[in-house]
Amino acid sequence: MRTLVLNAGYEPLSVVTSRRAAVLVMHGKASMLAEEGKPILSPSTLMPRPAVILLHQYVRVSRRRPSPPSRRGILRRDRRLCAYCGKSAATVDHVVPRSRGGDSSWENLVACCSPCNVRKGDKTLEQLGWRLNVTPQAPSQHMWLPQELDAPHEAWMPFLDHTSV
Fold first, then answer.
1. All domains of the chain, ordered by start, with CATH?
2. Which contiguous run of DSSP H or E holds residue 2?
3. Residue 158's pLDDT is what?
4. pTM exceeds 0.85 for this model
5. Contact criterion met (CB below 8 Å) for 22 and 37
């Protein structure tokens, strides 16, 4: 079981194991807002299993600029959908091929399915007559939220701002 950790301002901060969340609650660093599942048993206590906790002190999170692009980040940004055909994607493709001067930036990398990746090769979109279904760009603020929030647990829903997730 995973537990949603909310910063003191009620914004999602991270997702941790229920054991780690229970330790934070027991040490007085957080409050339990929702519980779920079987309780946590120890030799001396019986504690409800936390589903959502709220930190007592605000944790400042530095989010300067996006990190360098990675395969995992590109696939997450594009929701694992091919930028050319819209099918399920498992690879990453350079829109302007590296052999033609393209770089490995957020703006030049897209998620791609294997058949489209093979067909495209080192050709440009103009040569193939293709167009992108998405506009590749650096990730938004939402990209820095925990990945578990892409498919949130039902118990977390009342605590999430549905406009940002």
1. 2-63 (no CATH), 71-128 (1.10.30.50)
2. strand 2-6
3. 85
4. no
5. no
* Distance between CA atoms of residues 17 and 1, nearest Å: 6
Q: What is the pLDDT of residues 113-147, one digit of tens each?
A: 999 999 999 999 999 999 999 899 887 655 556 66
C-alpha distances out from residue 76 to 58, 73, 94, 158, Å: 28, 5, 16, 24
How many helices (H) and strands (E) the chain has is answered by 4, 8
Stated as kind and residue range, the H or E segment containing 128 is helix 125-128
DSSP 154: G
Question: Furthest-apart CA pair in the chain: how many Å?
Answer: 71
Q: Where are the beta strands (DSSP E) in 9-64?
A: 12-17, 30-35, 40-41, 46-47, 50-55
pLDDT for the residue numbered 28: 95
Place of tokens 């696939």: 75
Q: Is 82 helix (H, G, I), strand (E, B) or coil?
A: coil
